[in-house]
Write a structure and sequence with these properties.
about 270 residues; mainly alpha; about 10% strand; about 50% helix; 10 helices; two-stranded antiparallel sheet; elongated; Endonuclease III, domain 1; two-stranded antiparallel ribbon
Length: about 270
């Protein structure tokens, strides 16, 4: 077994993970928790995130606001730009009885302040039309009567909302572990682990890849919502270079040796056998 120890409120807390050579899924070994991007690494990261209180996902207070946030932050829009656009539109949504496509487009054509820069939102016309129609139709969705998958499928009937955006809305609204937000960062991490094949493309098989991702989470005993968020943040920060690393060449090794930088921040113990 591998011993993972983290400090929680100043007290050492231990988590046991399977031996690195054991499979978490057929053909996918756990690997060592101190090796970047292995299944054991991600399991340790999720566990430590849960110790710290988990994560708050919601960007809006209502379903309409969440749809606005996720649509404006969708494909092609950097996260910071999407959030800036959403912040502007959300202010109007909260102060006005109704916001139509024309008003949204007018807001999105004005440069946005992102950090110290002023940037333009690339998809002002297209997404303003989509969001305007979404807001007009969203009152017809009785969210309380729908389970997570049904809500995701219902949202996909709205203009501009594909499976990734719909899953993002559902995850944010409900901290759902029944859906996955399969963007490029999640795909890179899953290809590295071996959950997805090298040519994995959500556009061609979103349902199949999502099923594999959630199956992996269940086999590893970790929450899909937290893993999705942690993978996104980690892979986005390290870029594509780290994803080229290979898991430890000797995954059954039971000694942890110093490598300069820790792959698992906050882990203060070692892997061993019992």
């Amino acid at each position: 077994m591998q011993h993972v120890i983290s400090l929680h409120n100043g007290i050492p807390v231990r988590r046991l993970l399977p031996d690195p050579a054991e499979p978490v899924l057929p053909g996918v070994l756990w690997g060592r928790f101190d090796e970047a991007l292995t299944p054991a690494f991600w399991a340790a990261q999720v566990w430590m995130k849960e110790l710290a209180g988990g994560e708050s996902f919601g960007l809006g207070n209502t379903l309409a606001e969440e749809v606005a946030a996720c649509l404006l932050g969708g494909h092609g829009a950097p996260a910071e730009v999407g959030l800036a656009a959403y912040g502007r539109v959300r202010e109007a949504m909260r102060s006005q009885a109704a916001v139509d496509a024309g008003a949204i487009e007018a807001m999105l054509t004005i440069p946005l302040k992102v950090g110290q820069r002023m940037v333009r939102y690339r998809f002002a016309r297209q997404r303003s039309r989509q969001l305007g129609e979404c807001l007009a139709r969203i009152a017809d969705i009785d969210e309380a009567t729908l389970d997570d998958i049904s809500l995701r499928n219902t949202l996909m009937r709205l203009p501009g909302i594909g499976p990734k955006t719909a899953s993002w809305v559902v995850r944010n609204r409900r901290a759902s572990d029944e859906v996955a937000i399969l963007d490029v960062h999640i795909v890179r991490a899953c290809v590295h682990i071996g959950i997805f094949g090298a040519g994995a493309t959500p556009a061609r098989d979103y349902a199949g890849l999502e099923s594999r991702f959630i199956g992996f989470c269940r086999a590893a005993g970790i929450r899909a919502s937290l893993l999705d968020a942690l993978m996104w943040r980690t892979m986005r920060s390290v870029g594509p270079s780290l994803a080229g690393l290979r898991p430890a060449s000797n995954p059954s090794s039971t000694q942890v040796r110093s490598r300069g930088k820790r792959a698992c921040p906050g882990v203060v113990a070692r892997a061993g056998t019992i």
